[in-house]
Prior knowledge:
MetI-like fold
Amino acid sequence: MTRFWLIKFARTVLTLWFVVTFAFVVLRTSGDPVVALLGADAMPDEIEHFRELWGLDQPLFVQYLSYIGQMATGQFGVSLRDSRPVMDIILERLPATVQLGLAAFALAALVGIPAGILAALRRGGWLDRAIMALAVFGFALPNFFLGILLILLFSLTWQILPSSGSGTFRHLIMPAVTLATFTAGTLARFTRSAMLEVLERPYMRAAAAKGVPAWKRVLLHALPNAAIPIVTVIGLNLGQLVAGAIVVETVFAWPGIGRLLVIAVSQRDLAVVQGLVLVIAVTMVLANLMVDLLYGVLDPRIREAAR
Length: 307
């Protein structure tokens, strides 16, 4: 069991190291951030001064070792634009993204999982085909297009919801629906597939022959045994909600880390971009780790294999 978790931990550290290194190299080799910040008309002496001030005149390997050393002590640098600690800037925006992500995740789970179960129970019928058609439409529709469409309908045409910003529940509705649509469609399809496989098992037919009510067979026998693939999809999509919020937050001017990332990239604020990439990577890794933990809770065979 200890070896199992040591391997998981080593993979986590290796993944985060690779993400940080990749972001560092790409950002440093894709252009001069000082020129992007000061403008092409800045004096050469001024440009050189800021390069020395921010340590950008050092060789790339020296800059990399310095950045890794700062991360090891819990420091993620200072914003080139605001001259403020990166983590302070991220922590200001993180609550808005968490609020949006949790709302979208709850909405997707409340819609997608029951829809998948209902489609499996009505396999081959018109309800099954209708749910699957909506599911395909949901995860095939681009977020930015759906967001703009909702703004046109509910903000410009009917004028019942605000088109951008945050602060009230009404501001949250359209961004949450836009972000949840893809996850809900994915959950519906995977839940249906998992439930169809379980519903054909002999113990389900035996429960029906014993007179167990249909709702008990579904909730107490079928759903727990179909939970492994459903939990996998939930975990992957939960991690992707932070990364997927980049487009949604930009469309709705939602003040989260997704919109902050777009602004930081456009301004070539290297420290902020690196910090945000690390936050997104940590979210994905923690989501996968949570899925691994739930596997052991849901299936005793996985716990025995880990031991």
